[in-house]
Amino acid sequence: IIYATKCAIPGDHLLAGVYKTVDGGKTWKHLEIEFPEEIYPFAQLFGVFVPESKPHTVYVASTTHGILVSEDEGKTFRLGDRPPVKGPNYIGFVDDVMYVGTSGGGFWRKK
């Protein structure tokens, strides 16, 4: 399984989101995510991470919406923690500790 993200700009957000392929990239499925428009009317999505210890859980870093989490391989997403760093675009785990990074060099760690 491979996941990828597509960012959007204001006014062009219909194709933004998370995409999933189960056949090595031959076909891609656009995963339905309802982004709360009261936060932003468009989505800037960057990093996707699936921890080895939780293969059904998908984390997505969004500079506009914080962290999105799916616990069913992308069927549904919810807003996760809002880290105290602005614009998360990288998520990683080391020994079940979440690390979130930004393009500005900020990092946040959650145990």
List the helices and strands and how they pair.
Layout: E1 2-6, E2 17-21, E3 29-31, E4 45-49, E5 58-62, E6 66-70, E7 78-79, E8 88-94, E9 97-102, E10 107-110
Antiparallel strand pairs: 1-2, 2-3, 4-5, 5-6, 6-7, 8-9, 9-10
Walk me through this protein's architecture:
The structure is a single chain. Helix content is 0%, strand content 42%. By secondary structure, the chain is an all-beta fold. A four-stranded antiparallel β-sheet has the order 4-5-6-7, with no helix packed on it. A three-stranded antiparallel β-sheet has the order 1-2-3, with no helix packed on it. The relative contact order is 0.17. The model has no long low-confidence stretch (mean pLDDT 80).
> What is the CA-based Rg, rounded?
13 Å
Shape: globular
SSE arrangement, N to C: EEEEEEEEEE
Q: Class by helix and strand content?
A: mainly beta
**Main β-sheet: number of strands, strand sense, barrel status?**
4 strands, antiparallel
Largest sheet, order of strands side by side?
4-5-6-7
Overall average pLDDT? 80
Q: Low-confidence spans: pLDDT under 50, at least 5 residues?
A: none
Ends apart, CA distance between termini: 27 Å
Q: Would you count the extended β strands for me?
A: 10
